[in-house]
Amino acid sequence: MSVTSRYKDAWEGFWQDVPDRAGAVLWDAEPALTAGIHLALFEPHMTDPALPVVDLGCGNGTQTLFLADRFAHVAGVDLARAAIARARRGDPEGQVAFTVADATEPQAVHRLHGELGDSQVYLRSVLHQAEPLDRAPLAEAVAVLLGARGRAFVVEPDESAGRILRQLAQSPDGPPPKLRPVFAHGIAPGAMPDGQVPELFRAAGLDVLASGELPLTTTEYRPDGTRIELPSQWLVVGRAG
């Protein structure tokens, strides 16, 4: 199975059109407010910190480069060539192995595991943006990349976050500026029941080793000047045995 051409085209168009500057993308918040917080929750569950780290759905690589300052071998994987091109431009020293790949395509995922071996995976806000039929293959891709020893940190907006985004989109002035391109390119976040995320990974043969809730920080602000934060759930998954 692979993602639809419509979905690929939507992401290519998004990354081609959105301004190429820090913070221009809704979810491209500074790492101190995102991956840095996540890493503090993730690291205690890593069985082997020397394993490679894969940022799956890395986008323009902001969080990936943060991870590369803390781990010896980091790979960034994204469906969109335009996103990977941006990520590579932002990594002139070549710290990260940025790769274009469809994570719902088993052959591509197995090839990546063959190159890296068992890995840790960072998956931030990817599942809810995926087509519903692609979510199970994405969870299965994580299971392949982890192998026997890896762990994954997964964070997804919860159901109430979807309601917040819809309310923002329906405001009298229209969606906030950084939310408009998301809707314009047809990649509006999809509603996911809160219980679906852990079940996807259990169905892929993984155990939920830890979980919790925290706000997911965006780069957008409300009219009163407060930053928009979306309620989210996080999981650490892997093979417990």
UniProtKB/TrEMBL annotation:
InterPro entries listed in its UniProt record: Methyltransf_25, SAM-dependent_MTases_sf
Keyword annotations from UniProtKB, A to Z: Methyltransferase, Transferase
The organism of origin for this protein: Streptomyces finlayi
Transmembrane is among the record's keywords: no
PANTHER family membership: TRANS-ACONITATE 2-METHYLTRANSFERASE, TRANS-ACONITATE 2-METHYLTRANSFERASE-RELATED
UniProt-listed GO biological process terms: antibiotic biosynthetic process; methylation
GO molecular function: methyltransferase activity
Name by which UniProt lists this protein: Methyltransferase
SUPFAM superfamilies: S-adenosyl-L-methionine-dependent methyltransferases (SSF53335)
